[in-house]
Amino acid sequence: MILHDFALSSASYRVRIALNLKGLDYETRSYKLRAGEQRGADYLAINPAGLVPTLEIDGRIITQSLAIIDYLDATRIEPRLIPVDPAERARVLAMAFTIACDIHPLNNLRVLQYMETIMSQDEAARDAWYRTWISSGFAAIEAALQKTPATPFVAGDAPGIAEVCLVPQVFNARRFKVELGSFPRLVEVADRAANLAAFSKAAPP
Fold this sequence. Notes:
This protein is of the alpha+beta class. The chain has 2 domains: about 1-75, 3-Layer(aba) Sandwich (Glutaredoxin); about 85-200, Glutathione S-transferase Yfyf (Class Pi), Chain A, domain 2 (Up-down Bundle), CATH 1.20.1050.10. The chain is built from 9 helices and 4 strands. The protein has helices at about 10-20, 40-45, 65-75, 85-105, 110-115, 125-145, 160-175, 185-195, 195-200, and strands spanning about 1-5, 25-30, 55, 60-65. A hairpin with a 2-residue loop joins strand 3 and strand 4. The two termini are about 20 Å apart. The mean pLDDT is about 95.
């Protein structure tokens, strides 16, 4: 099992957490994204999109972090990361998708580099952009959490897909000095998960 990743890639971080939660052994091959190593011919032969992560598993090549996690949940069932109950599944996936679909694409390295090079935006403008979209998405997640009974994690007593997406995004929020005081429940859940071994071992150095 080979994970092609980059330590600071939040999408890669998600997959490392999921692999650790499943108790799976894997080899890591890392690429320096700002140096463009993910666009080398050898890697493009594996993932033509030139993005990380990519997981080589069971004789297959799987791309996109949530597709990888879904595959792991379908083939290595315990512990389950995505609930079986349709309503609960929809609830936690909505939070995961808020991060993976609403926040992350706007703050992806490709977007930030485009702002810096093509749009000639300085670091302050780039960072303000980054904080805006994290804060917007976190506000939606916090509101959703406030409507449900307080539990240790989003879906009960164990972390799942919501925390797998949330912890890397909170990590990034702190890197970019996002004000998190308005999201107490979200931060509490994320920090509780981040202290678990499966999460801490996956964290960027």
